[in-house]
Amino acid sequence: MSLYSGRPHAARLSVLLIAIIFSVAVVSYFATSLVRSSEVNHTVDLLSENHQTALAKHARNASLGFGEIVYISMPGRTDRQDAMNMLAWFSGITLKLMPGVDGTVVPPKAIPDSAPKDIPASVLGCFRAHANAWQYLLQTGMETLLIFEDDIDWDANIKNTMERLSLQMQNSKIRQQLPSDYERQNAPYGIDWDVLYLGSYKFGGNPELKDLVQTWDDPDVPGLKGIRGKGGIVPALRMAGLNDSEIGTKRMITPSYRTEKNTAYAITRQGAARLLFLLSYIGDLKAGDIDQDMNRLFIDGSLTGYTLTPPAFAQFKVGGSKDSDNVPKVEGETVNGKGNLKGQSLYIKASARHLMVQSLMLDNWNDYKKIAAPAKIN
Ligand SMILES: *[C@@H]1O[C@H](CO)[C@@H](O)[C@H](O)[C@H]1NC(C)=O
Ligand SMILES: *[C@@H]1O[C@H](CO)[C@@H](O)[C@H](O)[C@H]1NC(C)=O
Ligand SMILES: *[C@@H]1O[C@H](CO)[C@@H](O)[C@H](O)[C@H]1NC(C)=O
Asked: Three-state DSSP class for 305?
């Protein structure tokens, strides 16, 4: 009896066991699909148009959607610092001074071996000032930093342009990976880049990857006339597939390849670390001039970024190169005084510098006289 009674008991037990295992499997299947569907909903929510539009509005804030904006200026160029502070006031942004560096005080041991032996002190100082800005980002908790040089100009509608750029970068078709949840939630321009070039005069995507281009309408781009023949970006825009009626109405982003001018660029924390690694830690500073060195690093693929073309920021040129910090003052050709009023910037439709001057010029008593009768106070 005990032999026979044991078997059905064991059979019942194993049926029970199978049933338990089965129900655990069923429950966990539904549990995970619940998690999955709530994740799907979560993602859909983050990608909603409203969320993107709201995030793009950060591009209109006082640091244009970046952690902060710093500008590099030699401590002695107080005239340029005056101008930068006025410009910040005019455009509703906040700038922080990042002191320029006198190259003669950089000790030889701090200069990478690869740097040219005859590197001019000004070029070395320029590299060092930018490297200090990269360090500065890593010292803060910020994700991104926008870096300006102190001879910069931009369009009076810069916030519109940056908001449009943010929407494009949130919907970028030229990223290597889909944006992370962090990026979707917090990063108006994503953070899948080391460097975001916003003031490069030289454009040229990677000729082997011509399709990596994203274009959009931007009414604040100077027309074809404003672009043609100046920095040679028209042939590059054509190469990127834009026809002549689109050039002068659209901006585009492309992975950075040929770049020039560090007038305005943003970096991520990873970008800051990588630039310090490449140009200081392993000392791959070949030209010494960071414009050229960064251009080389993009071309050889050790640095990653995007370039905005036509650029949103430009150098404000006063008296040619004579305003450079290396050349003695020539009356009327320095930034100071008349030179300021005559200066020009490439690729900018409505120069913030020129409009700032208009908004500060006052003819108070004539303005009073234009009013038919002063308001009566009872
Ligand atoms: C997303 O959530 C809604 C309710 O908020 C629900 O009706 C819908 O079925 C969910 N979608 C998915 C794919 O789970
Ligand atoms: C501007 O927006 C960015 C991105 O959200 C943020 O990191 C930064 O702190 C904001 N700046 C200001 C001044 O609010
Ligand atoms: C330029 O391209 C746009 C968009 O592809 C097209 O609508 C337009 O007709 C083109 N214009 C010319 C002059 O080819």
From this structure: strand
* Ligand closest to the CA atom of residue 187: 2
Q: What is the per-residue pLDDT for 81? A: 97
Ligand 2 neighbourhood includes 310 CB (under 6 angstroms):
no
pTM of the model: 0.82
CB–CB of 134/272 below 8 Å?
A: yes
For residue 206, is it within any domain? yes
Do the domain assignments include residue 283?
Answer: yes
Distance in Å, CA 60 to ligand 2 centroid: 9
Q: What is the CATH number of the domain that holds 139?
A: 3.90.550
Is the CB of residue 65 below 6 angstroms from any atom belonging to ligand 2? Answer: yes
- If you take atom 4 of ligand 1, which residue's CA is the nearest one? 41
Neighbours of 157 (CB within 10 A): 18
152 domain-assigned = yes
State which of 37, 38, 47 you would mutate to test the pocket of ligand 1, scoring each by most atoms of that ligand within 8 A of its C-beta: 37
Residue range of the domain that includes 305: 61-360
pLDDT tens track for 193-222 = 999 999 987 777 898 998 899 999 999 998
Provide the number of structural domains found in the chain.
Answer: 1
Closest ligand to residue 247's CA: 3
The partner residues of 318 in beta bridges, in order of sequence, read: none
| Residue 158 maps to a domain | yes
Report strand pairing: 96-99 vs 264-268.
unpaired
